[in-house]
Specification:
Elements (H helix, E strand, L loop, with lengths): L12 H16 L18 H21 L1 E2 L12 H18 L4 E4 L2 E4 H22 L8 H14 L20 H8 L3
Parallel strand pairs: 1-2
Antiparallel strand pairs: 2-3
Helix pairs in contact: 1-3, 1-4, 2-3, 2-4, 4-5, 5-6
């Protein structure tokens, strides 16, 4: 934000969503059944619970792309035999949906917002949770610099200080010049 106005995005948000899914898909390819009980940076979730959250988020983002609107509701308790395959499959479907959707305004929980911002929020969600998965595997994989640079712009728009509680940890101080490190630090990781 600059003096109360939003600066236009630098890259196509649907392309960002694709880049985030490719990064996360590469991380997900390393998950084994034995990893599902591993802790994550999300204090209340193990890896299986994080994957369930990711799947539900992708379902919502897909609904926004297809229906132009979504009513937010509590996540259904779903038992999935292969949560990694479920997230990867839903991610592929999501990319197909967003690549065919018309740009414009969508409604999320009754609020109108540009569809590009919904896609960018999805990219942020996917990439950061992709990093969370890599952390749970014991090999934190940096968010690619170009992707992280773009997502940091959106993170600063979508996560104001007065709306962090219960959703994000306090920002960490990062002296790293790496965009991925700055993005994760901004989101409290």
């Amino acid at each position: 934000m600059t003096a109360g106005r939003v600066v236009p995005p630098l890259a196509d948000p649907v392309a960002l969503l694709g880049a985030a899914m490719r990064y996360t898909d590469a991380v997900l390819s390393r998950v084994t059944v034995g990893d599902l009980t591993s802790p994550t940076p999300c204090a209340d979730w193990n890896l299986q619970e994080l994957l369930a959250h990711m799947h539900e988020s992708l379902v919502v983002l897909d609904e926004v792309a297809l229906d132009r609107a979504v009513v937010l509701r509590p996540a259904a308790e779903a038992v999935v035999a292969d949560p990694v395959a479920a997230v990867r499959g839903r991610g592929a479907r999501l990319l197909r949906s967003w690549s065919r959707t018309d740009r414009g305004v969508v409604r999320v929980g009754g609020a109108a917002l540009p569809s590009d911002y919904a896609a960018a929020a999805g990219a942020l969600e996917v990439a950061v949770h992709g990093w969370d998965v890599s952390w749970a595997l014991g090999t934190p994989t940096p968010v690619p610099s170009a992707l992280a640079t773009e997502l940091l712009f959106y993170a600063e728009v979508f996560v104001p200080d007065d709306d962090r509680e219960g959703r994000f940890a306090a920002p960490r101080v990062s002296s790293s010049p790496e965009p991925g490190e700055r993005l994760l630090a901004f989101l409290g990781r």
